[in-house]
Amino acid sequence: MTKIFKDAEKRTFLVTGASGFLGKETVKYILSEGAKVIAMDLKIADQLKAIENQNLSFF
User: Is the residue at 2 inside a domain?
Assistant: First the structure.
């Protein structure tokens, strides 16, 4: 798979609406690129909490 983000390991992304379908898939993809993710939503879904990754933070 080709990496889309240049120097992803050095970047941090903010994903709003992270507990929805698109947000959750976006978070998974960004984490697979090696970047850090800050996930924001009014309600963090249990499915998103199940993603164990040191680069993932919830707010």
Answer: no
Instruction: Tell whether pTM > 0.85.
Output: no
Classify the C-alpha dihedral 22-47-39-11 as positive or negative: negative
pLDDT value, residue 15: 94
Asked if the structure places residue 3 within a domain, the reply is: no
13: left (phi over 0), alpha (psi -120 to 50) or beta: beta
Q: Quick one: which of 31, 37, 39 has its CA closest to 58?
A: 39
Per DSSP, the three-state class of 11 is coil
Domain count, the chain: 1
Residue 14 lies in a domain: yes
Residue ranges making up the domain that contains 15: 8-58
Q: Do residues 17 and 41 lie in contact, with contact meaning Cβ atoms separated by under 8 Å?
A: yes
